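BUG-397 | component: ligand-complex export | severity: low

The export step for flavin-adenine dinucleotide jobs runs without errors, but we want the raw record kept on the ticket for reference. Input record follows.
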Amino acid sequence: MPEPTQERLDAHRDHVRSVIASSAPKGESREGHRAPANSEVEAELRCWFKVMYSEGLSGASWPVEWGGRSDHHPLFDVITLEELIRARVPRTIDQVNLASGVLLKFGTEEQKAKYLPRIRSAEDVWCQLFSEPGAGSDLAGIRTRARRRDDGSFVLSGQKTWTTDGHWSDMGLAFARTSEGSSRHAGLTAFAVPMNAPGVVVRPMKTIGGVPEFNETFLDDVVLPPDSVLGEVDNGWSVAMSGLELERFGVGGTVSLLGMLVEDLVRLSRSLRIGDGMALDHDDILMAISNLDAEAEAAEAFVKQHVQMMLSGRDDEGGAATAKLLTTETYNRIAAYGVHLAESGTLEEDPDAELSRLRLEDAWLWSRALTISGGSSEVMRNILAKRRLGLPSARPK
Ligand SMILES: Cc1cc2nc3c(=O)[nH]c(=O)nc-3n(C[C@H](O)[C@H](O)[C@H](O)COP(=O)(O)OP(=O)(O)OC[C@H]3O[C@@H](n4cnc5c(N)ncnc54)[C@H](O)[C@@H]3O)c2cc1C
């Protein structure tokens, strides 16, 4: 597909800005505080998601018969994400994007017709039921079982954990073991699970930031009809891997958060008094901020290059993992330095600097979670080592 002209890209950017101005929820969307705090905020958020789909800010790359746009180009998605981040408004939920990708790739026509329109209308929010107390990085180690009954239905039992947004989701994309399989990766199956099905119990957990972003999910003899299976029975590994690749790339795509965090760092340092002088009188602080800015720029350049390679159909083995690693680790370093800096001095009366301090603190509390969710940094380094460098991977200690 030919790249859109600069005029079309600019027109799309203007369109996104105008949709945000007219329809996005008011107030700043804080990183690590994305789940709605009450039913009113949830209704507002669902309304915003619906607008995003109808205005082409989300799901525009889907096939036209499922609501996508024939004139869509992936560069429009890059612009949309940049603008949503810059405006600090809610973005679509990673787990919903993951489920949509899986449905489009592996769903039958009936499943697509059943689920996709409800995603676009924001009637259904999906969560991801992969991780378990004893299986996260090693997804093949899951112990949730799905027993097939004579009538073709399945009975799921087990426990999932870290289910982001599970407490207000309508559907879950779950993985369960259906047979022992010839290898650890065989014998797994993907299921669409209504979160209100009898036997599904969701228990919220609070993050270090004090908000219930994720949950424990108990599956206690949950009966699912045969058409709940996504993809083939016992062949769910490829479904899981395709979903995770999407998730990792989604995190890497948020790389423009880094530049904004550096801006917060600069704003904070301009109004920070340390001893008799200001923070910016200290060479070591200037050096540290410049280094972090260089790291942010390098991460952004890598992600842009990765996007370009993907768009031109070139192979970029391990690129999504590297993008996730660079984005989340740099995010953590900038935020950690911001918190350390704020603690080294006293802020002068400056509401903008105070807001920047709060953002850096939020980012720091959330940043460790980002280096774990969707695959930990160690696992990303393993993928990088294996796929980009041809090295063996490390084993967990
Ligand atoms: C904020 C957040 C949201 C999440 N949301 C969801 C969700 O919605 N749905 C869902 O299913 N899951 C979710 N998760 C879970 C996430 O996918 C897992 O936490 C992640 O895969 C790591 O698994 P684990 O926690 O079991 O840690 P483990 O896999 O037990 O890892 C423990 C440590 O060992 C290291 N390690 C593991 N394997 C290797 C290896 N091969 N080589 C080197 N080091 C290794 C890890 O890096 C880590 O430091 C979320 C997690 C977080 C933090």
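Assignee comment: Attached the raw record above. Residues 81 and 112 are 25 Å apart (CA to CA).
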